[in-house]
UniProtKB/TrEMBL annotation:
Entry keyword NADP: yes
UniProt keyword Transferase present: no
GO molecular function, one term: oxidoreductase activity, acting on the CH-OH group of donors, NAD or NADP as acceptor
Domain NAD-dependent epimerase/dehydratase intervals: 15-255
Keywords recorded for this protein, A-Z: NADP, Oxidoreductase
Annotated SUPFAM superfamilies: NAD(P)-binding Rossmann-fold domains
Domain of life: Eukaryota
CDD domains recorded: FR_SDR_e (cd08958)
InterPro entries membership: Epimerase_deHydtase, NAD(P)-bd_dom_sf, NAD(P)_dehydrat-like
Organism lineage: Eukaryota, Viridiplantae, Streptophyta, Embryophyta, Tracheophyta
Protein name: NAD-dependent epimerase/dehydratase domain-containing protein
Amino acid sequence: MAEQTGLEKNIKEPVCVTGANGFIGSWLVRTLLDHGYTTIHASVFPGSDASHLFALPGAADPDVRLVVHEADVLDAKAVSNAVEGCAGGGVFHVASPCSLEDPVDPQGELVTPAVQGTLNVLAAAKMFNVRRVVVTSSISALVPNPSWPSNTPFDESSWTDLDYCKSRQKWYPVSKTLAEKAAWEFSEKHGLDVVAIHPATCLGPLLQPNLNASCAVLRQLLQGSKDTQEYHWLGAVHVKDVAEAQILLFESPTASGRYLCTNGIYQFGEFAERVSKLVPEFPVHRFIGQTQPGLMSCKDAAKRLIDLGLEFTPVENAVQDTVESLRAKGFLGQEESQS
């Protein structure tokens, strides 16, 4: 019996992942399976394709319960159904609208789903006694922040300047910032354990069938885009590191607050130069001068995660993995590379 008890102690708690069939969500499900999680509730937008999740390594294991729930995060009852089986476990809230196109109705398309969706997920977590919620925020809740001192590297104490974003019709940072602020208010008011992670531009192999916004940044660069990414860039990170970090933040008893997740902070122009050297067959634009005026470089910007034990994948690997994946999935036509 003693041996059985020991085995029982190793059984991982049940977890729910919202936005489970997106770029980060799919990698999180894959990484949870790698870490031995056997009860995973995958919440996906109604009508969206989640079939690739069942092809992930370990998903077909007889001991694994991978349950897909169709739940619009604005539907509180559907969200509750997805979270209900996670008492004593965790919720990874990843779902948040992010479009490649400018929104026609920013409030309805981005802000309300991000904010109210977060509150619905947290309310369900509280109702069903979830131990901890890991909220996937974004560097878009840290920057743009034009008032940040130019001689100081950005860290977790920075918050996006909402007025600056609204005046420039940049609604995604507004949605992520308001959603995270709502999460902290809920956490304080209701005594729910919440930790937030702030990934930079996420790269890596696409497990999902569609092209996601962060990999589209690299694709545009490969196609010769001259967009400097202005104040919406701090650095890049391999998506598998983001998934590992999310699990680390769930499992680490001491984790609290906000965690920047990027393999260093540096100019987008420097990133473009690295990409150009890695894949010289593509017409990558060479930027002159600073693409992010005043941005201070910092190799260990994610010090809080590094201190918890996270090791980052080199950015070069992330770029190469993404390019290979974009090619394999047909998102990079042959005509886009220089002959």
